[in-house]
Amino acid sequence: MANFIFVARDYKTRKAAPVNRLSPETEQEELLYNEAAARHNLRKTKREERKEIENGELNRLQALLAEGRVFCDMPALADRDSILLRDTRLENSLICQPQQRNIYGRIFGGFLMHRAFELAFSTAYTFAGMMPCFLEVDHVDFLRPVDVGDFLRFTSCVLYTESEDLDQPLINIEVVAHVTRPELRSSEVSNTFYFTFTVCPKAKSMKNGFRIRKVVPATEEEARRIVDRMDAKALQSMKI
């Protein structure tokens, strides 16, 4: 069963033409007519909700980008308590070895997560300026297998921070693993990892006036990554 919607156009003006209204006569026709009207109202409501969501997301992106533009265009006037996302990046690379493979001959996922965690920890450490404290693994994507001999590159960044709780500020780290083949001039994402850290209370107590800096994007792509991850984290918290 399918429902179709047709429109009428004036063959001379090519503009919308009026359509004669239907007048249901039987009980069955009345039922079908009301169902069609309900579907129309539902579609209209969904369009309005989608527009509100898109407008809200656009406002969030613009708000995130506003401060980033100051860093890029007028760095001397930028907020000293903020930092560009790209300035929090770290990277390392390795050649995958046979001892790292699993029973299926692929590189063991636990090994990849271990290396990603080490880089995430280092990123949080250099960002905060003191010993970080691991809280949780937010999310991991295994997008494609990694083979023995693959040249694997890990890139990390502080995606965003949360400072509402001064006793436990949050540092959200993104790590992306790429299988890189220089001879083919190709690089594919194999894994994405998201970790959350805070600062060890003991280390924090030794540094009076400590404050986690806010991370701001310089590009729309970075802003979208931040918004997408924040939304996913909020949804995850609601489920818990």
Automatic annotation (TrEMBL):
State the SUPFAM superfamilies in the record: Thioesterase/thiol ester dehydrase-isomerase
**Domain called HotDog ACOT-type: residue spans:** 86-203
List the Gene3D superfamilies hit by this protein, alphabetically: Hotdog Thioesterase
UniProt-listed CDD domains: BFIT_BACH
PROSITE patterns the record matches: HOTDOG_ACOT
Query: What keywords does the record list, in alphabetical order?
Result: Hydrolase, Repeat, Transit peptide
Q: Name one Pfam family in it.
A: 4HBT
User: What's one GO MF term for it?
Assistant: hydrolase activity
Q: Which InterPro entries match?
A: HOTDOG_ACOT (IPR033120), HotDog_dom_sf (IPR029069), Thioestr_dom (IPR006683)
**Does the UniProt entry include the keyword Hydrolase?**
yes
- Taxonomic superkingdom: Eukaryota
Q: Which family does it belong to?
A: Belongs to the acyl coenzyme A hydrolase family.
Q: What is this protein called?
A: HotDog ACOT-type domain-containing protein
| Native organism | Ilex paraguariensis
Kindly list the organism's lineage: Eukaryota, Viridiplantae, Streptophyta, Embryophyta, Tracheophyta
